[in-house]
Amino acid sequence: MIDLPPARILAIETSCDETAAAVIENGRALLASTVASQMDIHARYGGVYPEVAARQHVLSILPVIEQTLAQAHLALSDINAIAATRGPGLAGSLVVGLNVAKGLALGAGLPLVGVNHLEGHIYSAWVYNDGEPPAPEPQFPLMALLVSGGHTELNLMDAHLSYKRLGATLDDAAGEAFDKVARLLGLPYPGGPSVQKAAEEGDPTAFKFPRAWLEGTWNFSFSGLKTAVLKESKRLDGRPLPVADLAASFQAAVVDVLFNKTLNAAREFNVRQIVVGGGVSSNKPLRDAFLAQAEFPVNIPRLSLCTDNAAMIAAAGSFRYALGHTDGLEIDILPTWPLS
Ligand code: KG4
Ligand code: ZN
């Protein structure tokens, strides 16, 4: 663990469809966090509509920042650096947050820190509410499972800000598979929470869906599983879909692969901690699987920090700032990962 100089970071996150700001102190103590969700707007289209998302960020970003600073009882003059998500994400959305961050940094004479959205998901695992008992500290080496709407990958971290990608999905991301299967089953957007809810009434052993173990690699694949759900629903030939059983069996297959591959990777690389981050880390059976094993300490963010938020960007930004990774105003968005 490095000793962070006492610093307060204001962070902005606009990579997809949430307009978010947060302030963190000393890298992990969350003083305030605001997330303005556009979910209701995009639900009409069954997914995120990029142009609409970008325009909505323009409308929401300043009120969201003002509300966050007010909630923390702070002024811009109390802040040490401004962090913002550079990518990956939707270009039109990223540009709004990054440019507002540049404006604030320039106007207030503060350093600017560009943060990768995925490292943010990892760093959310160590965040705790100011005044509450701290979450367990980072311990290296660690195995990070990143499961979001756009990414599914295993990263080995030997130190802060050092990511070795061991494997990733060859096709759909885990969250994407949840979203697509939800649509197929007629469940509302966003798909992950809908599938989880429907699965509560279902039997996870009702359908024997395939698991792509991809032995000998740390990669994942979910498109075959998605196709198996599609085939099974077509085989029912117009009869009412057993939605709960299909959802539960699909979810069990995803959790089985994510959990077991991560555990095997943790053993193989002899890590001291497992971290699970990204929107799919809010999935209850996935959390339960990790929390039920006693072999490795596991850090999973609390539910409000699993899906996109700015606390995670503030957390990763704090460590970047502390380690001297600040940026000039010339930086641009980088919608892909890894950053450099
Ligand atoms: O990290 P995130 O908010 O955005 C990206 O960076 O992509 O992740 C969003 C993804 C969506 O695909 C959503 O369906 C999934 O996370 N998700 C879930 C759950 N909550 C959100 N998937 C499974 N179970 C959940 N409870
Ligand atoms: Zn995300």
- Count up the domains: 2
Q: How does CATH name the architecture of the largest domain? A: 2-Layer Sandwich
Beta strand count: 11
CATH-level-4 superfamily name of the largest domain? ATPase, nucleotide binding domain
Uncertain segments? none
What is CATH's topology name of the largest domain?
Answer: Nucleotidyltransferase, domain 5
User: Are any ligands bound, and if so which?
Assistant: 5'-O-[(R)-(carboxyoxy)(hydroxy)phosphoryl]adenosine, zinc ion
Radius of gyration: 20 Å
- As a percent range, the share of helical residues equals 25-40%
Strand content: 15-25%
CATH class value of the largest domain? Alpha Beta
* Class derived from helix and strand content: alpha/beta
Give a verbal description of the structure:
With 340 residues, this protein is α/β, with parallel strands linked by helices. It folds into 2 domains: 139 residues, Nucleotidyltransferase, domain 5, CATH 3.30.420.40; 159 residues, Nucleotidyltransferase, domain 5, CATH 3.30.420. It is built from 10 helices and 11 strands. It has a 6-stranded mixed sheet with strand order 5-4-1-2-3-6, with helices on both faces. Strand 7 and strand 8 form a beta hairpin. The longest helix has 26 residues. The protein is globular. It starts with 7 loop residues before the first strand and ends in an 18-residue tail after the last helix. The model has no long low-confidence stretch (mean pLDDT 95). Zinc ion binds next to helix 4.
